[in-house]
TrEMBL record:
It holds the Pfam family HHH_3. This is Competence protein ComEA. InterPro entries: Endo/Exo/Phosphatase_dom_1, Hlx-hairpin-Hlx_DNA-bd_motif, RuvA_2-like, Soluble_ligand-bd. Residues 31-47 have a biased composition (Pro residues). Residues 268-287, 294-313 form the Helix-hairpin-helix DNA-binding motif class domain. GO terms for biological process: DNA repair; protein secretion by the type II secretion system. One of its GO terms (cellular component) is type II protein secretion system complex. It comes from the Bacteria. The lineage of its organism: Bacteria, Bacillati, Actinomycetota, Actinomycetes, Micrococcales.
């Protein structure tokens, strides 16, 4: 049969407690015969020692929390301490200055005042550094947006015509040009060209010339304008002037090789010039009067190439 260690410890504790409660024998001093005093001295008076009371026996309840025991030079105290040690052999855990245990047995960390003060100081330094850095950052500089300049149309030099109040500036050349190609081409009709296109580009957009065409009769390098009509003749064919270029008294002469007067010609006569369509003819009329042929170069839509073609065909 296996012995129970717990019951053995309880048995030993009970025995030690019984021994501690047992009265300690009292030792009484017995006086002996008087000792003779030496000559010339008085005999000592015999002293009877007082009886020693028995030491109190401490009570150790089974459910009491063990307390520190002060050691006494008595056998009863030693036996009581031995009994308590046998009853509770495991040392009691004492909470340290850093941890403590709650009712549930969990360890709770305790921070002393010095550590808490250091932590608060570090946090305050970090917050101050962030605020100081944000306050010292340079503010963004304001950038002024450019204001679009509004320019008024200035009349050509020597024209003597003041701009009409409230009149808008001359429209710029359109990004897309519409040119009417007729004559000896594969696909006659209106073609779409980009700004700055040439007569050769208009012929290519119309499918190219057909057999028997005479493209040499045209200036293929000339810049076309919006609304212009390009006619490709056949070999031996003489180009007739446009039907709307009938001579009028305002032209100052007949249409053909005679130069066109820039200051007196009407829109029909101006449209009969090579490279001049309805839009460009209207701009030429708006730019009157002209002091010289060179002033025609100031009209929007007339570039160096077209100016070279018109120089010998116009006059003032």
């Amino acid at each position: 049969m296996t012995a129970d260690p717990a019951s053995d410890r309880d048995d030993v504790a009970r025995r030690l407690a019984a021994l501690a409660r047992a009265p300690r024998p009292v030792v009484t001093a017995v006086p002996g015969p008087p000792v003779p005093a030496p000559p010339g001295r008085r005999a000592p008076v015999p002293v009877t020692p007082a009886p020693v009371p028995p030491a109190p026996v401490p009570l150790v309840p089974s459910t009491a929390v063990p307390r520190p025991v002060r050691w006494a030079p008595t056998t009863a105290g030693a036996l009581a301490h031995a009994a308590q040690t046998v009853r509770d052999p495991a040392p009691q855990e004492r909470p340290t200055s850093r941890t403590s245990r709650g009712p549930s047995g969990r360890v709770r960390w305790a921070v002393d005042a010095r550590t808490a003060g250091v932590a608060v100081g570090v946090v305050a330094l970090l917050v101050g550094a962030v605020v100081l850095r944000a306050a010292s950052a340079p503010a963004g500089e304001a950038v002024a947006l450019p204001t679009p300049a509004v320019t008024a149309e200035v009349p050509a030099a020597g024209t003597g015509v003041a701009p009409t109040p409230g009149a808008s500036t001359a429209p710029a050349a359109p990004a897309e040009l519409l040119v009417h190609v007729v004559g000896a081409v594969a696909q006659p009709g209106v073609v779409h060209l980009t700004d700055g296109a040439r007569v050769a580009d208009a012929l290519d957009a119309a499918g190219g010339v057909v057999d028997g065409a005479d493209p040499a009769a045209l200036n293929l390098a000339r810049t076309v304008v919006d609304g212009e009509q390009v006619r490709v003749p056949r070999v031996g064919e003489v180009l007739d002037p446009p039907a709307d270029a009938v001579p009028t008294p305002a032209t100052g002469g007949q249409v053909g090789d005679a130069p066109v007067d820039l200051n007196t010609a009407d829109l029909a006569a101006l449209e009969g010039l090579p490279g001049v369509g309805p839009v460009l003819a209207g701009r030429i009329v708006e730019g009157r009067p002209y002091a010289s042929v060179d002033a025609l170069d100031d009209v929007p839509g007339i570039g160096p190439t077209l100016m070279a073609d018109l120089r010998d065909r116009v006059r003032v």
